[in-house]
Amino acid sequence: MAEGTDDRALPATEELALAREALQAGDLTRAADHVANALARAPTLPEVHETLARLATAGGSGGLDLFPLHHHTFVGAVVARAHLLAAAGHPAEGLDLLVAAAAHAPGTDWAGVPWVTSPELAERIGPDQVARVLMQVCAAAPDPVPRSDRAALTPYLTLARNAITIHPEHALLLGTASALARRAGEVPLAVRWAGRGVRAAPSKMGEVWLGYALRSAGRTREGLAALRRAVDHDPDDLAVYADIAGTLADHGRLDEALSWIERALARNPSFDCAVHTAHRLRFQRDGDVRHLVALADYIRDNPDDSHEHADLAECCRGRPWLGQLTPPTVRPQPLPLTSAEPSTGRPGTPPPSAEATRRLRQLAHLAWPHPPAAYDTAVALATLDLTDLLGLLAHPPETPENALGRVLSGQDPALWVRCVQVWTCLGLLHHRTDEPWPSSTRRQVLVELAQAAEIAEAALFALVTAAWVDPSIRPDVAQVVTERLAAAASDRAGPLPVTVSLAHLALATPGLDPECATLARMLAGAPARPGRGTLRGLLGRLLRPFRPRLPSPPP
């Protein structure tokens, strides 16, 4: 479905005036275009529908020929055809098109017209058809729908009420109506309808709808009981197990939640909902990043999940380096490359090109969903050459003139330099990816940059991100991170200010040695310097194998 609008779009009243002129001139195609535009801007305006009716009378086939459906059809034309279908005695087909428009542009009141809310419609199309329409509406809407968009659901709630008045014991109708009411914020109504549906005909889906409604009403114990009855109806529907586990976890009952998810995995170890939920709950239990890495591996190896999951992003959100920059521990500075450029030895580093600056400013941000998503975003820098990438580090662009730039300028402009460093180093991961990792330019430059205090965090984050997306390099990256953290923590003057951030980076590293993880937790979790005895013992063991691992420069 096409948008069909731009900055030159006319108000609905002007579109109507042009439509009437075209009608009077007999140019029905042009009139139809203007009516479609008017419908897109004011879908419930009576004058628009009056003009559409005049157009239908003037055209053949009730005006339907003027609004054909193609692969990309303007949404206004789709809605016009929906109304004409209803007028021609095919309201079910018209409803299907209105629902399609709602999926394309949620929050717009496409269905707020008399023929949809009329009691006669529910009687004409029957309860099964109404239930199917309500399911389509629910599938296209979030749960719950944002308050600002709920008015667009009111006509469908009216349709549901009208149908339930005629068919008060139709279980499928009651269940789908409950699902719609819940999304629209009508939670008591959702509970009432779902309860009636279960009493009329107990079923798995009826109990699921009731469980969701009760959960939304804050009646968690009753909601869980309904979901358990749904499992009794169908022990093989593992999505319900995952819902039960998620609900239990949300209310602090993590052990019970894990028990339910283990039951699901015992039935099908590869079921996507259970796998996502299991890794999320295990991470909630012990905070070990290996669960999130395993989930990322599963997502990479199973791109065709049954539906979209947000467990990985939910776990990483707001966590240092997993989902965002840490607060600055040292004042970031442009990389001092005035005497020698890493890897090349040429004196000085020229400023980046205008194109490199443009790309960097477009993608740099303080947060990301998770490390693999950050890696994917940075592919926009893949075609920049090494001189441009190093130029971005040596000569950070000015803060962008957008929302992010305004926030940073008002709070801490130095954060922008950190953004530049992080995203440029992520861009380095995409440099000459045909080179084998051990001797690659990207590895050599990032490891070298990781030794510079001004940019160590950004370079190490790029290396850690590379380990998330490429299991084969995890031992190498883990050793680099271990050595860098140990070196920072063993400084003669005591752990450096950057050490806390490096500790969070270590905790985000796949395959980190347990002793290094212990040190990292100590450094990240203690506001003051940890006891020297404990720290000295860990550092002694970690530093024994400390050796630079830089490969020879590529030929």
Automatic annotation (TrEMBL):
Residues 323-356 are annotated as: Disordered. SMART domains: TPR. TPR repeats lie at residues 238-271. InterPro entries: TPR-like_helical_dom_sf, TPR_rpt. The keyword DNA repair does not apply. Keywords: TPR repeat. It comes from the Bacteria. Pfam families: TPR_19 (PF14559). This is Tetratricopeptide repeat protein.
